[in-house]
Amino acid sequence: MTEPLPETGLELRSLVTSDGTLELSLHDVAIPAPGADEVVVRVEASPVNPSDLGLLIPAAADMSKATVAGTAGRPVVTAPVREEALAGLRVRIGQSLPVGNEGAGTVVAAGASAQALLGKKVGIAGGAMYSQYRVVNAAACLVLPDGATARDGASSFVNPLTALGMVETMRREGHSALVHTAAASNLGQMLVKVCLADGVPLVNIVRRAEQEDILRGLGATHVCNSSAPSFESDLVAALQDTSATLAFDATGGGTLAGQILNGMEQAANAAAAQYSRYGSAVHKQVYIYGSLDTGPTVLTRNFGMAWGVGGWLLTPFLAGAGPETIARLRARVAAELRTTFASTYTQEVSLAGMLEPEAFHSYLRKATGEKFLVTPQVD
Amino acid sequence: MTEPLPETGLELRSLVTSDGTLELSLHDVAIPAPGADEVVVRVEASPVNPSDLGLLIPAAADMSKATVAGTAGRPVVTAPVREEALAGLRVRIGQSLPVGNEGAGTVVAAGASAQALLGKKVGIAGGAMYSQYRVVNAAACLVLPDGATARDGASSFVNPLTALGMVETMRREGHSALVHTAAASNLGQMLVKVCLADGVPLVNIVRRAEQEDILRGLGATHVCNSSAPSFESDLVAALQDTSATLAFDATGGGTLAGQILNGMEQAANAAAAQYSRYGSAVHKQVYIYGSLDTGPTVLTRNFGMAWGVGGWLLTPFLAGAGPETIARLRARVAAELRTTFASTYTQEVSLAGMLEPEAFHSYLRKATGEKFLVTPQVD
Fold first, then answer.
1. Which of A308, A328, B34, B317 sits in a 20 to 30 Å window from B191, CA-based?
2. How far is residue B78 from each of residues A77, A199, B20, B355, measured CA to CA in Å?
């Protein structure tokens, strides 16, 4: 079933120049022949995740001043990078970087020991997915279940493994329930389903009433709307009900992480019989895994001394989890790809389409409920 | 050498009433006969540590409005507690609480199996040290070296074990160098000496030039003055020199913890050859162990995703360290009590003297270099 491969494929690149310009463009790159244990995947679908955007369009780029040149098929976007932030981008200056953490497509060529994958639909991860073709190790491919499309499998890694990683982290660090912010996201909806299936109490924090409805529709018990006047007491009540002492926060900036810690402390103290001058002895942890709010994290410390706030990232989590855990999590993703781990996309764009102003202004907003799917095979 | 014991001794108490008043006073409490493995210690010296103040005078008490009644020998201080903070003190309301984490004195009575301690000078910890007599388990006593006075041994626990605990935590969590803020404190000076002896690179952060001089006089190599215009670059240079990735911060509030994390990240990236979109993979940690600044902790997150900020407290550290480690650390404190772990006091006060406005306004300032010693045997 092999078809003749083209010699080159398109690849989206992000470049920051030394004079402070961000440049996004499409390049023709050679498609190498696969090694014995490698496959060539024709990438058919790849999501635009928040975790892709930092590399694609650094926060320091002022996209309100972006201009588009080039041709319709080969647009070139340029935008100024704030000068004071250029030092922080030092190590990437002058490098034309491919982008795209994950995607799915069809195996169109395979090395001698990877022939079994030929013609299969697979999900893959590992960067440079905003490309028409990717050569990857066969072992890195997640074979999609029969009948699943590339669109079904495009988001098989980042969000599903992050949702499962949160629950794994909870167990490993001795907590018994979770809090999640920006909880109506694709990831948040997966987490609701995973926690329901696993019997893990989950406190969902959203910002709008319609997001509450989405999560309650999935069966979520505890949904707190941070825009509601009763948010603070709603949160403490949910934390008392669940005894959640671990939160994953996608917002990062602002006061929310501190509010959660204070709520956990209030919930712990509500049951306390004796005064402890240093606050409750219960360890309260917030992991910041996203940065929807890039402003400072502000912690008003009324939560004793047994607390932590820190960064959480999928890749180091997986590295620490070990191959057996990874295999178990991946098998679950494959088995539940179109149920628990189903993603919804509101727009499809081609590689060139990603570089249209309407598209990049839209995906940079990171609005809950909006999600782009890149289709590199479409012109 | 036993002397007849009085039936009661004075004890300082702190009470928050349900109508929102803080009351500090002295009480006569019975001195119980020691059990078989217990001793009665005549407390002769006890320091006023920042860690005592939260219990003695909660931050919510408005001491600018304090009044003193009673007699010269039995003063009673009252001050209003801010109403909005009263809920947070709920579990201590109505309880007359003894205060004082540590102290030293003479064993004046001993149970059958603790006779060997009779007449010894010992350091003790465990609360209620702002008292004339304390009954404690013999095993809890640190026998002071020959010739050491109660003043020498008054601070044998909190500061020495905290300094040693910081170095232990560093080793246990895989770091190789330390950062310390408010570094000219009694504790900070101990840490300088411990790190010099143990060959641990240490970055000291102080706020004034004369504090720099104190630490350099002790042999400190890296001393950064946060009031200096060059502080930010001084800090990064020191972090590059030392590769310190763990900090202990006594200030808590403000931007310092975040500045340290950003400095660590800059130091890590200065050596980086390749761009990492999530920042350096080096884990950077700040433990907040004090709260000299009770304002919010403000983290401007330009330090990637491999970071943590959290509370650190001596008691849970010791609980986790286990008896062998504790015994090793205590033996070192005893051996180096008048060298590495020497404390300096600027004022001595009696129990009644602690309740004089001049005294409490002074120790509440927590000024570096100023330290009170309570002498409960003095009228």
1. A308
2. 68, 51, 10, 10
What does the pLDDT look like over B261-282, one tens digit per residue? 999 999 998 877 676 777 888 9
Dihedral sign, Cα of residue A266, residue A268, residue A273, residue A278: negative
Give the number of other Cβ atoms within 10 Å of residue A57's Cβ: 20
Q: Residues near B12 by Cβ (< 8 Å), separated by ≥ 6?
A: B24, B25, B26, B27, B56, B98, B99, B100, B130, B131, B351, B354, B355
Close Cβ partners of A362 (under 8 Å, ≥ 6 residues apart)? A347, A370, A372
Q: In the structure encoding, which two tokens stand for residue B358, read together?
A: 């001049």
Residue B125, both tokens? 């910890």
Helix (H, G, I), strand (E, B) or coil at A142: strand
Q: Does A18 touch chain B (CB under 8 A)?
A: no
Q: How far is CA B6 from the centre of its chain?
A: 31
Tokens of A275: 């005064």
Among chain B residues, the shortest Cα distance to A288 is held by B305
SS3 at position A224: strand
In angstroms, rounded to a whole number, what is the distance separating the alpha carbons of residues B114 and B136? 11
Smallest CA–CA distance, residue A335 to chain B, in Å, is: 30
In this complex, do A274 and B307 lie within 8 Å of one another by their Cβ atoms? Answer: no
Angstrom distance (rounded) from CA B147 to CA B135: 23
3-state helix, strand, coil in chain B (%, to 5): 35, 30, 35
Length of chain B: 379
**Bridge partner residues of A202 (DSSP):** A178
Buried b or exposed e, range B233-255, using 16+ CB within 10 angstroms = ebbbbbbbebebbbbbbbbbbbb
Asked if A266 and A288 count as a contact pair (C-beta separation under 8 A), the reply is: no
**CA A14 – CA A59 distance, rounded (Å):** 13
Q: pLDDT of chain A along its 379 residues, tens only? A: 456 889 999 999 999 999 999 999 999 999 999 999 999 999 999 999 988 998 999 989 999 999 999 999 999 999 999 988 887 788 889 999 999 999 999 999 999 999 999 999 999 998 999 999 999 999 999 999 999 999 999 999 999 999 999 999 999 999 999 999 999 999 999 999 999 999 999 999 999 999 999 999 999 999 999 999 999 999 999 999 999 999 999 999 999 999 999 999 999 988 777 767 778 889 999 999 999 998 999 999 999 999 999 999 999 999 999 999 999 999 999 999 999 999 999 999 999 999 999 999 999 988 777 899 999 999 8
- The residues in A 128-157 lying below 8 A from B, measured between CB atoms, are none
**Residue A81 DSSP label:** B
Q: Which of B158, B161, B207 is nearest to B181 (CA)?
A: B207
Please check whether residue B110 is in contact with residue B92, taking contact to mean a CB–CB distance below 8 angstroms: no
User: Do the beta carbons of residue A310 and residue A287 sit within 8 Å?
Assistant: yes
Check if the beta carbon of residue B349 is closer than 8 Å to that of residue B375: yes
pLDDT in tens, B8-37: 999 999 999 999 999 999 999 999 999 999
The pairing of strands B178-181 and A102-110 is unpaired
Q: Which two tokens stand for residue A85?
A: 């932030």
**Contact flag B298-A300 (C-beta cutoff 8 Å):** no
Structure tokens at A241: 């009900």
Query: Which chain B residues have a beta carbon less than 8 Å from that of A91?
Result: 269, 272-276
Residue given tokens 């109508």 in the structure block: B19
Q: Is the dihedral of CA A31, A35, A36, A39 positive or negative?
A: negative
Q: Is residue B147 within 8 Å of B27, Cβ to Cβ?
A: no
Q: Which residues pair with B10 in a beta bridge?
A: B28
